[in-house]
Design goal:
By secondary structure, the protein is mostly helical. The chain folds into two domains: 6-46; 60-107. The radius of gyration is 23 Å and the shape is elongated. Helices cover 61% and strands 0% of the residues. The model has no long low-confidence stretch (mean pLDDT 89). The protein starts with 5 loop residues before the first helix and ends in a 12-residue tail after the last helix. The protein has six helices and no strands.
Length: 119
C-alpha cells in the first residue's frame, strides 16, 4: 500500500491548524482520526510530515524479471509459464514461481497469450 501524499498531509494539517475540528477534517479529506493524530505527532517530533520509507529490501527479482521478460517473450512466445521460469533461472540464476512469472507477464503492456500446458 502506498503512503498518502505529502501534499495531502500538509493540507490536512493546515485545516487542523486553521481550527477546523478533527472529525470534520477527517470526513472532508477521507482520512481517519488516528491518521491525523499520527501526522500531528510526526510533525511535532520531526518537524516534517514525510512518509517513512517502506520497510524491506528492494525487490530485485521483479526488476530483473521485468527487464529480461519482453525480449524473451518476443523470441519465445509459445513457451509455458514453467518453461519461462526455467529460462529465467538459466539466464540469471534466480528461481521464480509460475505465479510470479504470470504476474510479471500480466504487468507488461500489450496482450501476451499464456500457454498453460504442453499438448
Amino acid at each position: 500500500m502506498k503512503p498518502y501524499s505529502k501534499d495531502l498531509r500538509i493540507r490536512v494539517l493546515a485545516a487542523v491548524d486553521g481550527g477546523t475540528p478533527r472529525d470534520e477534517v477527517a470526513k472532508i479529506f477521507s482520512v481517519s482520526l488516528p491518521t491525523i493524530k499520527r501526522w500531528l505527532k510526526r510533525r511535532r517530533e520531526t518537524g516534517n510530515v514525510e512518509p517513512k520509507p517502506i520497510p524491506g529490501r528492494t525487490p530485485l527479482k521483479g526488476i530483473t524479471l521485468g527487464a529480461w521478460l519482453p525480449e524473451h517473450l518476443n523470441k519465445n512466445p509459445d513457451l509455458t509459464l514453467g518453461e519461462h521460469c526455467e529460462a529465467f533461472e538459466e539466464h540469471t540464476g534466480t528461481k521464480v514461481s509460475t505465479a510470479t512469472m504470470s504476474r510479471a507477464i500480466a504487468r507488461l503492456p500489450g496482450e501476451w497469450p499464456l500457454k498453460k500446458s504442453l499438448r
